[in-house]
Design goal:
Elements: E1 6-11, E2 15-21, H1 24-29, E3 37-39, H2 42-51, E4 56-60, H3 62-72, E5 77-80, H4 87-98, E6 102-103, E7 114-121, E8 127-134, H5 146-150, E9 152-158, H6 165-180, E10 184-188, H7 192-207, E11 213-217, H8 218-225, H9 230-237, E12 243-247, E13 253-257, E14 260-264, H10 278-290, H11 296-311, H12 322-329
Parallel strand pairs: 1-5, 1-9, 2-7, 3-8, 5-6, 9-10, 10-11, 11-12
Antiparallel strand pairs: 2-4, 7-8, 12-13, 13-14
């Protein structure tokens, strides 16, 4: 394996998050999938935006959020994703670069617009996401910088982006490039509905040994395995992937690596404000330790600390000095 230029390179949705606090009744009034993520078209996006209370606009996207966390923890990162040549696309590119992440995928001319996620946060901190993927679902394999992918220690793939056909082809090619270069491939399942639609793909990749690090939450694990019992599902997948990480919200997280198993409790939070980005930042914390060769338990603790930081404020990306926070709480 040659020396790495980047610790992590990610392929994911390039979207801008629009986040608003709302009362429970609005979720029902708008017929939203409470606590879940729903793909919507541009007309529905406009309808929901008009119905939202005052909102904050922040660059987001699951894998992009994870890179933002990794960058604040001192790792060298790059992003591959598709924006349109419009104002939101310029905002997204600026935000990524301002966070220290290299992002050079050319913008796409014409429609659709850059993607956005309309996030309704209820008083309990639960987030209900409505995603218009926009230009992001048209990321072509031709847009990949294969030398860039081969230069990263870890290729991190966002499950959300597996749904559209064009970026799915791009990610398949990226896996080939990474494995030919002797790099690690990390995959986050993202949401149960993605597994429902593409579970055969994911199970085949696991069985074929194409995934080195798999991130799932408790619900996604059940959908992937068909097992409602967490331990049964975990034990079914663990022997098939070198590193398996399963988050369980307030119950903490469990991981296995090469026969070793570790568990961590959820890090304490004074008040849950917004759960947007919790899984993304857990992955950032975990990978920040993994990339440095930390033990499995330490990696899990780093994930829990990062997740606790992000759910204590609005928005999917860290606001605290994450290096200092890790030094204080580990």
């Amino acid at each position: 394996m040659t020396d790495t230029r980047y610790d992590v390179i990610a392929i994911g949705n390039a979207v801008v998050d629009v986040i608003a606090s709302c009362e429970e009744g609005l979720i029902d009034e708008l017929s939203l999938n409470r606590g879940g993520m729903t793909l919507i078209d541009e007309a529905r996006a406009d309808e929901l935006y008009d119905a939202m209370p005052p909102a904050r606009e922040l660059s987001g996207g699951s894998a992009a959020n994870t890179l933002a966390g990794l960058s604040t923890l001192g790792l060298q990162c790059a992003f591959i994703g598709q924006v349109a040549d419009d104002q939101l696309g310029k905002v997204f590119r600026h935000d990524m670069r301002a966070t220290g992440i290299d992002f050079d995928t050319p913008a796409r001319d014409g429609e659709p617009a850059t993607g956005r996620v309309l996030i309704f946060v209820t008083p309990d901190g639960e987030r209900t996401m409505n995603t218009f993927l926009g230009a992001g679902q048209f990321l072509p394999a031709e847009a990949l910088d294969e030398d860039l992918i081969a230069s990263a220690g870890i290729l991190y793939l966002e499950g959300y982006l597996w749904d559209p056909e064009e970026p799915r082809r791009a990610m398949r090619r990226a896996i080939e490039v990474a494995r030919e270069a002797g790099r690690k491939v990390a995959f986050t399942a993202s949401e149960s509905f993605v597994i429902e639609r593409h579970g055969d793909d994911f199970r085949a990749m696991i069985d074929d040994g194409l995934i080195d690090i798999l991130f799932v939450n408790e619900s996604e694990l059940a959908t992937l395995t068909g097992e409602d019992d967490f331990e049964t599902g975990f034990n079914a997948v663990a022997p098939k992937v070198p590193v398996l990480v399963a988050t369980r919200s307030a119950k903490g997280a469990v991981a296995s690596a090469h026969g070793e198993r570790a568990v961590t409790a959820a890090a304490p939070v004074a008040k849950v404000v917004d759960t947007t980005g919790a899984g993304d930042q857990f992955a950032a914390g975990f990978l920040s330790g993994y990339a440095k060769g930390e033990g499995l338990e330490v990696c899990l603790k780093r994930g829990a600390i990062a997740a606790a930081e992000v759910i204590a404020h609005y928005g999917p990306r860290p606001e605290a000095d994450m290096k200092a926070l890790m030094a204080e709480r580990l």
